[in-house]
Amino acid sequence: MATSAPMASSARSETTRAESGWAGPGFVEFVALMALMMGLTAVTIDSFLPAFPAIQHDFAVQDPNRLQLLVYVYMLGFGTAQLLYGPVSDGIGRRPALIVGIGIYLAGSVLAMLAPSFEVLLLARAIQGIGGAAGRVLAVAIVRDRYEGRDMARVMSFCMMVFLIVPILAPSMGGAVLVVGSWRLIFGVMLALALVTLAWFGTRLPETLHPAFRRPVSARAIGSGIAVTVRMRASFGYATALGLTTGCIMGYVGSAQAVFDTGLYHLGPLFPVAFALIAGAMGVATLINARLVRRLGMRRLAHAGTLGLFLAACLQLALILAFAGKPPLWLLIVTLAACQFLMSFAMPNFNALAMEPLAAIAGTASSFIGFYTTLLAAFCGLLVGQSFDGTVTPLALGYCALSGLALAMVLWTERGRLFGSGAR
């Protein structure tokens, strides 16, 4: 661990040199491309939520909760594959690793369009997840190749802001596709977006990994990088907090169709509107975070967001219990939007804080952190989603428990202190 500071210092000097001779896209285009790479995952999850009833009908799925597996099997493939892309990209570069990942995603999308059964559709979703993992891992690694500290947090916030516009639009897009075609056409849209991403990345973004930071692709090198990440208290602690807060989102996404459409409020075509209102709160918060992070620092904003989320989740639970698990729709939307708003001050900064000490192994670190946080989030989200019982009580309990655990992890990471390390 004694080499961490020199490695980080070396990374900073390399970043400065890379910035001075950067031949790639400008800041706005760079952020948009990174957001698209990350946002392909949101499209893959959210755009086909309105198609659940049609899929259930076509494949005669008896248990509607089983449809949630289409979300979680994607996340399983997505989480597991992340463990590979970073170390591979540390050895061969970011560009070839991403091209391979998008190719796998394209294959999964084609299989989903042609799936003859629910089981084959689940397989296609897993393949999509394996391919889609490349965008998530390599976007973070590429940002870390170019930026550090508060600048990295600012870029990640802008990426998250653009990325979070996708959940606002994706269900509406899926609903619009269902008006003119079948649910299979939604996977055709995913296919087209992946081709756009591949073309944009391939023609506009040069290799960002400096030759000095290339590492051999071997089990020993990967194991060494993972060991450094796990032993780094800040990296492991903030990654765990990120996984727990993301688990809230996964529980919400898994439950959303049942809560707003088929099981409780029966919104029908208005389901995307409710989904968009809640996701919009996250977009606003990430924009505010991007503007404040340089002045206030990552820790202050992350700590305030986590503490606020826990308090809001406790209030939400109390209100929902007062209505026996079936609150008025407006109250549920307001409380969920408040939780998502506060969460969005924590998540981008958790990601940046976890990556900050790991410049020299950015690819491997991004891979492991992505793998770990995704599987943790998927497991927590699955527990919450599968607990749906016709009320929103399980969802409120999930938010309260997971945000409380995230706050506990932040306290552990900072040795019991909040807001005390504002330099970053």
TrEMBL record:
Entry membrane topology: Multi-pass membrane protein
Pfam family, one: MFS_1
Statement: the UniProt record of this protein carries the keyword Nucleotide-binding: no
Span list, region Disordered: 1-20
Keywords: Membrane, Transmembrane, Transmembrane helix, Transport
Location, primary (coarse class): membrane
Listed GO CC annotations: plasma membrane
UniProt xrefs under InterPro entries: MFS, MFS_dom, MFS_trans_sf
Ranges of residues in domain Major facilitator superfamily (MFS) profile: 27-416
Biased composition annotated in UniProt, kind: Polar residues: 1-13
Spans traversing the lipid bilayer: 27-49, 69-85, 97-116, 122-143, 155-179, 185-205, 236-258, 270-289, 301-323, 329-346, 358-384, 396-414
Compartments (UniProt record): Membrane
GO MF annotation, one: transmembrane transporter activity
Name of the featured protein: Bicyclomycin resistance protein
Organism: Methylobacterium frigidaeris
Recorded name of the encoding gene: bcr
